[in-house]
């Protein structure tokens, strides 16, 4: 009897709560509707008075259709055209070396240094383009997206030369390869290799050491990023494979082995 | 005395000639390697050229520095210039000293410390909030700089450190047992505009 009474109380309580939340939902909807109507009425009044069309509510969309005014509410125009920047042509190495020699002979050391840096940039971009050309056209059914090929060289800071290529299959699967020298990470990776405890911490591991074509490498898994494989080359270079939506470790390894790692290493001038 | 001067001049001349020869030989290597399509060799030779150039610039900067600052005499034996690639550029060092105290001037091109220093100098919030009462922003020959006080041993005068950033270079000037007024006066004797022109 007592149990039945408790059950009755519980049911009654939950019904009451439910009703309350429903009532709250209804009240909120009513409030939103009312504020919309009030907003519209105010906008109309303002429009009538000032003659400037209002941009709130439904009229907000008219601007993005392409027919509406191209300036936003604050009067600043919105950009609609422009094809972006064109790829700059790499500096002419021979001309830059000649400039450097001339500036050095004249005692303009700062100019000479600038020309040498430009020549270095030119050579690095050529090395990068050669490496890009040497990459396979397809990897495990993923095709190279040539629009994503990039060679970036900076004579400043942590990384000198970075070469990037992206392979895709459908909308979902992607392999991004980045090859770089003087990378900031390569030092950190060597720290990993010198500490064997990374391998066996008892938990489900998300980092481990592997070998690809004889090179020591590090494979990582992250739920949101997928697999990342890092292969250090020689003293300062590193290949990074970022594999999104790959089924397992083996698939990643197969993809990585289709690259000519020895060739890349040689082109980067690593021993 | 005359002999010493001749000897010093001869050593200087030989050093300059060696540096010139190095530059020329690296240039020749870079050209021939590039013509032969050996990009990596050309790259390395160009890096050597760059290093040589950084050292030449450093030596030019050393020539601009005053031989003495008030009572502090330059210790030329401790002058050094190094050329590096990619991480930090050239580093130039000079020491000034008397029997009891010393001052050090360092110029680092492409210094990794520049980012945080510039943030300190250009963001009033940072300069204000992180100020522990030992640092302040000053101006030296029109350049913004950070002056930092370092407490010395008990009873001794403090040391001061002045950091002046140029575009991609950092000039650090540190004097032991000094005062704020003295370090700023001495810093004004360093030809900063000429140095900036050379190292940028």
Can you characterise this structure?
The complex is a heterodimer of chains A (271) and B (200). Chain A is an alpha+beta fold and 271 residues long. Among the domains of chain A are: 89-134; 136-199 and 206-267, no CATH class. Chain A is 42% helix and 23% strand. Chain A is built from six helices and eight strands, in the order αααββββαββββαα. Chain B is α+β, with helices and mostly antiparallel strands and 200 residues long. Chain B is built from six helices and eight strands, in the order H-H-E-E-E-E-H-H-E-E-E-E-H-H. Chain B has helices at residues 2-35, 39-64, 114-122, 124-129, 180-187, 192-199; strands spanning 68-69, 72-82, 91-97, 102-109, 135-140, 143-150, 159-165, 169-175. In chain B, helix 1 runs antiparallel to helix 2 (39-64) and helix 2 packs antiparallel against helix 6. Chain B is elongated and about 65 Å long. The model of chain B is unreliable at 9-18 (pLDDT under 50). The interface between A and B is medium-sized, with 28 and 28 residues.
Strand element count of chain A: 8
Supply the number of helical segments of chain A.
6
Rounded to the nearest angstrom, the distance between the terminal CA atoms of chain A is 86 Å
Globular, elongated, flat, extended or rod-shaped: what is the shape of chain A? flat
- Structural class by sheet pairing and helices of chain A: alpha+beta
Principal-axes geometry of chain B comes out as: elongated
């Amino acid at each position: 009897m007592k149990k039945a009474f408790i059950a009755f109380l519980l049911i009654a309580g939950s019904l009451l709560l439910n009703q309350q939340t429903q009532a709250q939902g209804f009240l909120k909807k009513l409030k939103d509707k009312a504020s919309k109507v009030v907003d519209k009425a105010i906008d109309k009044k303002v429009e009538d008075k000032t003659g400037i069309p209002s941009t709130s509510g439904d009229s907000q969309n008219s601007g993005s259709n392409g027919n509406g005014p191209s300036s936003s509410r604050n009067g600043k125009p919105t950009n609609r055209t422009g094809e972006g920047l064109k790829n700059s042509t790499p500096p002419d190495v021979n001309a830059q070396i000649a400039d450097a020699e001339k500036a050095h002979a004249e005692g303009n050391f700062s100019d000479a240094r600038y020309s040498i840096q430009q020549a270095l940039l030119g050579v690095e971009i050529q090395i990068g383009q050669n490496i890009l050309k040497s990459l396979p056209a397809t990897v495990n059914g993923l095709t190279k997206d040539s629009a994503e090929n990039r060679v970036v060289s900076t004579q400043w800071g942590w990384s000198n030369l970075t070469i990037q290529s992206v392979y895709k299959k459908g909308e979902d699967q992607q392999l991004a390869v980045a090859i770089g020298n003087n990378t900031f990470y390569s030092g950190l990776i060597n720290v990993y290799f010198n500490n064997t405890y990374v391998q066996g911490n008892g938990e489900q591991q998300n980092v481990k050491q592997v070998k690809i074509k004889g090179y020591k490498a590090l494979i990582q898994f992250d739920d949101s990023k997928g697999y990342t494989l890092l292969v250090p080359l020689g003293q300062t270079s590193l290949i990074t494979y970022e594999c999104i939506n790959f089924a397992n470790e083996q698939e990643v390894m197969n993809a990585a082995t289709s690259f000519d790692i020895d060739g890349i290493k040689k082109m980067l001038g690593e021993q | 005395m005359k002999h010493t001067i001749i000897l010093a001049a001869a050593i200087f001349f030989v050093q300059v000639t060696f540096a010139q020869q190095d530059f020329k030989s690296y240039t020749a290597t870079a050209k021939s390697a590039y013509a032969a399509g050996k990009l990596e060799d050309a790259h390395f030779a160009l890096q050597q050229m760059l290093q040589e150039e950084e050292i030449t610039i450093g030596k030019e900067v050393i020539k601009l520095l005053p031989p003495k600052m008030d009572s502090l005499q330059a210790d030329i034996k401790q002058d050094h210039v190094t050329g590096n690639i990619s991480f930090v550029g050239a580093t130039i060092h000079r020491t000034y000293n008397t029997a009891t105290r010393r001052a050090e001037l360092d110029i680092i091109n492409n210094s990794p410390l520049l980012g945080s220093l510039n943030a300190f100098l250009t963001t009033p919030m940072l300069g204000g909030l992180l100020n522990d009462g030992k640092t302040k922003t000053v101006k030296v020959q029109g350049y913004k700089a950070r002056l930092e006080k370092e407490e010395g041993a008990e009873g001794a005068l403090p040391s001061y450190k002045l950091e002046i950033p140029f575009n991609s270079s950092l000039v650090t000037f540190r004097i032991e047992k000094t005062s704020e007024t003295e370090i700023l006066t001495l810093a004004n004797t360093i030809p900063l505009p000429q140095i900036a022109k050379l190292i940028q």
